[in-house]
Design a protein that fits this description.
Blueprint lengths: L1 H4 L6 H12 L8 H18 L9 E2 L2 E2 L1 H5 L1 H20 L7 H15 L4 H9 L8 H26 L4 H25 L9 H5 L1 H17 L9 H12 L3
Antiparallel strand pairs: 1-2
């Protein structure tokens, strides 16, 4: 479990959770449980995605993938344990936050990690038919496989910080748009790779880049009512789409 969890990575999703709390005027620490839980779910998904039956990757975060280091059986178990740990960590937040808000954050995270979002997106990615691909179909996979955890992070962080329904709806719209834009940008950076489910493959690099920029602009508009409090979210969104590696 430690092999992949602690070497690093962007830690973008935890940062989004903290920034979600800041956007509604709260201390970022209010989102700590959501930040940790979402990163645990993300790491579990990487462990399983790297398996030979999925993406069959040999390296992750500058070191051998978990199954290469410890074998496939332990990699499956490590992923399972990381997923379980996510819900344990988030449930423990009930000691410091309103129980109804913690319950809603748990529900949102379970939805994001489940068959209608992350797992379903991965299943569709594995079955993706490049010959029958449409931009809408590609973005649907991105929305579920990638953006779902962006939503769980931003909305969950704001929810534990006391955000109301109107604020949560705007933050959800922001996170959905930026999550899809992030994945398009990721595919653009890897445009010489062989990823089938990719707007870069389908539309070309320039058109895909323009779509990512349009999604970013739309996401940023959702933050206008939050004023300066949302500046950390704006900075993270721009990083997600404009990063160079």
């Amino acid at each position: 479990m430690r092999h992949l969890l602690f070497p690093g990575g962007k830690r973008l999703r935890p940062a989004l959770a903290f920034a979600g709390a800041e956007a509604v005027g709260a201390a970022p620490e209010r989102a700590l449980a959501v930040a940790a839980a979402v990163e645990l779910v993300h790491t579990y998904s990487l462990v399983h995605d790297d398996l030979p039956c999925m993406d069959d990757d040999d390296e992750r975060r500058g070191r051998p993938t978990v199954h290469k280091a410890y074998g496939e059986a332990l990699a499956v178990l490590a992923g399972d344990a990381l997923l379980a740990a996510a819900f344990e960590v988030l449930a423990q937040a009930a000691a410091d936050a309103e129980p109804a808000r913690v319950a809603a954050a748990l529900r949102d995270l379970a939805h994001a990690a489940g068959s209608r979002q992350l797992v379903g997106g991965q299943a569709d990615d594995l079955a993706f038919d490049r010959a029958a691909a449409t931009p809408e179909g590609v973005e649907s996979v991105h929305a579920r496989k990638t953006a779902a955890l962006f939503v769980a992070a931003v909305v969950g962080g704001a929810r534990l910080a006391g955000a109301d329904g109107a604020a949560l709806a705007r933050l959800r719209g922001f996170a959905e748009a930026v999550g899809v834009a992030f994945q398009i940008a990721d595919d653009w950076l890897d445009r010489d790779g062989d990823e089938a489910c990719s707007l870069v493959r389908l539309l070309g690099a320039d058109a895909a880049r323009a779509r990512a920029e349009a999604l970013l602009a739309g996401g940023l508009r959702q933050l206008e009512p939050f004023g300066a409090n949302a500046e950390p979210l704006r900075e993270l969104a721009r990083f997600a789409v404009w990063r160079t590696r």
